[in-house]
């Protein structure tokens, strides 16, 4: 069966058409600058890439063009071939603990949590509505970034703040990247044919989070109420003392939103290095002797290592450690440096095994206390698999 896996942003729409159960990507693409000038779309199919600049006033038009292109490019012969559409949805609040079939009522229910994910949720839901209109009768499924983390216990998900903030305003840790961490858990559990593993999943890309998993259940994760918390990221600060916010507001004469915007977009690797949020640019600058780039990498890797050690303690000793996402899958330098900072745990990489990129691989040496793997993530596939599972029910 063919399933569309969709990630709709406020001005973009990414899709992957996947054949299941073969898990084969048939086509993929991106509609960008929707609703703003310079809009265009790209579709990759059969090793070819088609790019067209057209006006995309809204997501509905983007979806209509996508359907037409799928037919015109003979990617499908009829729209009936699309048997389900899965949508990445950032926030399901405390209510949506697993992937859910989308109906107008469910969309209404999810939009209660738009306030918790104001940049993504309304766009995710707008994308879902556009597909529901374009493909009537086809199952649409919402797959939430927060859902996998809903197994966390109060000890982990509550902040030590006035309890009424939780009761009145749902202030708590939600965690994100859940679909990726769930995929890593599934891949590793399938590989070892075990469902009782204690896994530390390190998703380090532009955004980044670690997740401690015990027998398929999340014990803790580094992102929080929003994706701003936890490790240092490409342009996000990760954890900081919140008192910095009113202090900078006063000093710079800016609003809380502007400070938080700087913590999201001008911090992390970018903020410290002053070079870029992209780890490759920062690594290149560090190699050329840029001191702040070196410091940025030092800070970044140390924070990942600190959480790794903390989660190993929380799990009472992990069985497997995994690296995934852009940096985790591709940068042998980052992996080597992070693991060398965990020497007290007895972790050791094998330089030759670590010389790998983008493939499932064991990278630790035989005398490492815990095996370390690279496990490429595939959120699109996870979304499609959930959609298939719900369509078969
Ligand atoms: P996102 O959070 O946007 O999905 P990704 O998971 O794609 O991000 O990760 C992007 C990060 O991965 C960037 O910092 C980029 O430099 C890094 N990255 C991607 N490819 C490589 C590579 N070949 N070597 C080192 N880093 C890489």
Write the layout of secondary structure elements.
Blueprint: E1 2-8, E2 12-19, E3 24-32, E4 40-45, E5 48-53, H1 59-72, E6 82-89, E7 100-101, H2 104-110, H3 121-134, E8 139-144, H4 154-157, H5 163-169, H6 178-192, E9 198-204, E10 208-214, E11 217-221, H7 244-252, H8 256-265, H9 268-273, H10 279-287, H11 291-314, E12 320-324, H12 325-330, H13 332-340, H14 351-354, E13 361-362, E14 372-374, H15 379-391
Parallel strand pairs: 1-6, 6-8, 9-12, 12-14
Antiparallel strand pairs: 1-2, 2-3, 3-4, 4-5, 7-8, 9-10, 10-11, 13-14
Helix pairs in contact: 1-3, 7-8, 10-11, 11-13
The structure holds adenosine-5'-diphosphate.
What does it look like?
- There is one protein chain.
- The chain has 393 residues and is of the alpha/beta class.
- The chain has two domains: 2-144, Nucleotidyltransferase, domain 5 (2-Layer Sandwich); 178-379, ATPase, nucleotide binding domain (Nucleotidyltransferase, domain 5, 2-Layer Sandwich).
- It has helices at residues 59-72, 104-110, 121-134, 154-157, 163-169, 178-192, 244-252, 256-265, 268-273, 279-287, 291-314, 325-330, 332-340, 351-354, 379-391; strands at 2-8, 12-19, 24-32, 40-45, 48-53, 82-89, 100-101, 139-144, 198-204, 208-214, 217-221, 320-324, 361-362, 372-374.
- An eight-stranded mixed sheet has the order 5-4-3-2-1-6-8-7. Strands 11-10-9-12-14-13 form a six-stranded mixed sheet, with helices on both faces.
- The model has no long low-confidence stretch (mean pLDDT 96).
- The chain binds adenosine-5'-diphosphate.
- Adenosine-5'-diphosphate (ADP) binds at residues 205-207, 234, 278-280, 325-327, 330-331.
